[in-house]
Write the structure tokens for this entry.
Amino acid sequence: MAETTKYDVAVLGLWWSSNYGSIMTYYSLYRLIESYGYRTVIIDRPGIGPDDFLFTTDGRRFQREHFPVTPVFQFHELGKLNDYADCFVMGSDQVWNFGICEKYQGAFFLKFAADNKKKLSYAASFGHPGFFAPPEAIEETKHLLERFDGISVRESGAVDLMRDTFGIVPERVLDPVFTVDPKIFEDLMKNSRAAKEREKKKEPFLCTYILDPTEEKREAILHVAGEKNLPMVHMLDGYTENFATNKKAMHLDGVVEDLKVEDWLYYIYHCDFLITDSCHGASFAILFGKPFICIGNAGRGLPRFESLAGLFHLEDRFVYDAEEIEKRPELLESVDYKEAHEILKRERKHAKKWLKEMLEAPVRNEAYQEPEKSLAMKVVLKLYKTVRPLISDNTKARLKAMARRK
């Protein structure tokens, strides 16, 4: 049997898909934690078999090239992860959206982690204004959250949600993509297929990143392209099973096929204007200082869009109906990023400081180094002290012996 490789930190979250924003979120978090000197591993998706399609995604391809992962464990085996690291970090994006996290049997609240392990969340998101779970699930989640040494969330509304639902007040921090040096993204895009192809053209272009194409969004895109007189490059959801349907719905020339996350970065970074219905699409537009319009996507959680817009004081770049775009010519103007990037600088400093301090802090409940053994011992001894006056000397001896057993 191969020896388990030991790490300082293990990160769990939704990195394994073909969602380009999620891939970059977990790469960023990995790079951030590593920059503090902690040897870091990403936890593989629990419960999958060797032939699962998740082994064929762009997220998986990117992982093989850029960061280590643990072996796959079935849900009943997740306790074995305690052999891999002394600190577990629940990562960002919609990991606490009940519709997603309920599938993971408490793993997304680090149920598997022993009491003597540090447990943190970094920029977790609920995705929606509520934790839409039955009462018993809310109660269990509250218990699991109370075991955490530090909790941070991504959206401002999540702070209120946690306080009202679980009686816990978390820290609000930036999505990991905002915390790292943007140069790491530039390095990724240098060798992309898009970089090689665009070298030949060297012309300005309008870029779109649309997860859920509709006729209204299509008409808005054509309007902006016409007004700005720009050729178009269209990027769709990375899930291959959705590509044909989405391409048909988009019904526009210029849709990029076989898009890799490095290409995705390149097109956003180099475009002259971006239209997106993705929260991460808007995030990278802000990070790269690009003029953009973001169409709020109710099906994917409006609070995420509202929080991002409000945080950077860029509410005027977000619309919640694609038909608004033709009625608002100011949306086609450039963006003054001076204030937004000052906010980014301040928020980045705060987020990095919070995570660094949490990683350096001692385990809050380290007194319970061996939780099952020590708790059982305390229960037995307490019962012994209670009933001691009522029992014989022989029984006392037997109880003492039981309390000492491993």
Observations:
- The CA atoms of residues 233 and 254 lie 5 Å apart.
- The radius of gyration is 25 Å.
- The chain has two domains: 7-179+350-360, 192-334.
